[in-house]
Write a structure and sequence with these properties.
Keywords: Cell membrane, Electron transport, Heme, Iron, Membrane, Metal-binding, Transmembrane, Transmembrane helix, Transport. It is a multi-pass membrane protein. This is Formate dehydrogenase subunit gamma. By secondary structure, this protein is mainly alpha-helical. It folds into two domains: about 50-140, no CATH class; about 150-404, Fumarate Reductase Cytochrome B subunit (Up-down Bundle). It has 13 helices and four strands. It has a two-stranded antiparallel sheet with strand order 1-2. α5 (about 150-185) runs parallel beside α10 and α7 crosses α9. It is globular. It binds protoporphyrin IX containing FE.
Length: about 400
């Protein structure tokens, strides 16, 4: 049986898989786009309130306090609206009013009290802002942070809009890759396998790569639970979300050290071969030969321009993730409230792009290209694969082989 027939059969299966994945991802993209415009916010604190007249205030005052609370509670539900200015006359609670807070079902009042035993800095952060003092309709003090002006901006920007946009970036990029697989098929070894192998990566390189890869995937999955758990897991039950949230929080912290260490070792091992040069420009202009099987691929040394971009994304992205991650692990230790919110936004934004980029890397290393995975699995690649994708590197290896 010829290689062409074997490849032809493989490609059909990959293409069908790509088409199915593209259709599912397209549906997910439509859903996320709808979520952006559906008018409800992702993080609406669920709570209720009652205003009671303690007998000293007049009936008119009670009505006024009710109106204020209704207005403020509605603010929690509606996006893109700022509330009445606290400086406006009549905004502050009227004398003689007592607010009775009704905890959410299943929450105990003891919980917020336990949370209030933090250090002085934490207590300062948890104190409701002066602008809203006495008016929070939330049942525990730290949740009232949502109602403060910065908290409201954070909730609408970070926890809602950006979260949906992030999902669109990841799903959109995965959709394009699935479409590429469906239309273009798997990149073949054009000449078929030579059946002789060339050593490409040593044990230390592969071990470091897989340690970094598994910890990155762990960080990505646990991060997705933290950011999207409410959308993806809550429909299956609050208990499951609680368990998943607990595992994700600890899992995120556990995966962080091997990831940081892996980035450091990979940087030391591979930086010398990833300095950009003139060949990279030619490779990029030809799209790396990824979009067509016609003619030879642009020449490359050990790492082509696409791989250099992957390397530098891992390095710079990794450093940013580790830096912002450490600041998030020690809330308010290094930063104030506003800077802390920006760091959170930066962490989420860089994570989103890294996840999208590494979905691309995983795609090309597995289903997207015949023969690529061998490089990182056994450390040895087919000679024809090396000739087609890393011609100049193979020439160097062959020179060394004949010199021996
Ligand atoms: C299941 C997940 C992954 C698979 C299947 C995979 C596969 C591969 C393969 C086959 C190569 C060698 C390509 C060559 O021969 O030059 C490679 C290289 C590399 N991988 Fe991965 N990888 C994965 C995840 C990751 C992750 C998560 C990171 C970093 C956070 C990463 C970083 C790198 C880097 C920097 C290189 C060298 C540059 C390059 O070849 O692109 N990999 N990977």
């Amino acid at each position: 049986m010829s290689d062409v027939i074997v490849r032809g059969r493989d490609f059909t299966a990959y293409r069908i898989g790509g088409a199915i994945a593209a259709a599912l991802l397209f549906a997910a993209l439509l859903w996320q786009t709808y979520e952006i415009f559906d008018g409800d916010a992702m993080t609406v604190p669920e709570t209720s309130w009652t205003a009671v007249n303690d007998g000293e205030g007049s009936g008119e005052n009670a009505v006024l306090a009710d109106d204020i609370l209704v207005a403020r509670t509605r603010l929690l539900d509606e996006r893109f609206k700022t509330g009445p200015s606290p400086e406006e006359p009549g905004f502050a609670a009227q004398a003689g009013q007592t607010l009775v807070e009704e905890p959410i079902d299943g929450y105990s009042k003891a919980l917020p009290e336990a949370w209030m035993t933090g250090d002085a800095e934490m207590l300062r952060m948890l104190r409701p802002g002066q602008r809203t003092e006495g008016l929070s309709s939330l049942p525990y003090v730290n949740a009232a942070l949502f109602e403060r002006p910065e908290g409201r901006d954070w909730r609408l920007g970070m926890a809602d809009f950006i979260t949906h946009l992030g999902a669109l970036v990841i799903l959109g990029f995965a959709f394009l890759l699935a479409l590429l697989l469906a239309i273009r098929g798997r990149v073949p070894i054009a000449e078929g396998r030579a059946r002789t192998k060339v050593k490409r990566f040593g044990f230390l390189e592969r071990a470091t790569h897989w340690m970094t890869a598994t910890s990155f995937i762990g960080l990505a999955l646990t991060g997705i639970v933290i950011a999207y758990g409410e959308t993806l897991i809550l429909p299956f039950g609050g208990d499951l979300l609680g368990q998943a949230g607990w595992i994700a929080t600890w899992g995120h912290a556990v995966c962080f050290p091997p990831f940081a260490f892996g980035i450091l070792i990979m940087g030391i091992m591979w930086v010398g071969r990833n300095i950009p040069d003139r060949l990279d420009w030619i490779w990029l202009k030809n799209g790396g030969g990824l979009f067509s099987d016609e003619g030879p691929n642009p020449p490359a040394k050990k790492f082509n321009a696409g791989q250099k971009l992957i390397f530098w994304s891992a390095m710079l992205g990794g450093i940013l993730m580790v830096g912002t991650g450490v600041m998030l692990m020690f809330p308010f230790f290094f930063l104030g409230l506003e800077a802390q919110a920006w760091v959170m936004l930066g962490h989420a934004t860089v994570a989103t792009f890294l996840i999208a980029i590494f979905i691309g890397h995983i795609y090309i290393g597995t289903v997207g290209m015949q023969g690529a995975i061998d490089a990182m699995w056994s450390g040895r690649v087919d000679r024809n694969w090396a000739k087609e994708h890393h011609e100049l590197w193979l020439k160097d290896i062959e020179k060394e082989e004949t010199a021996r």
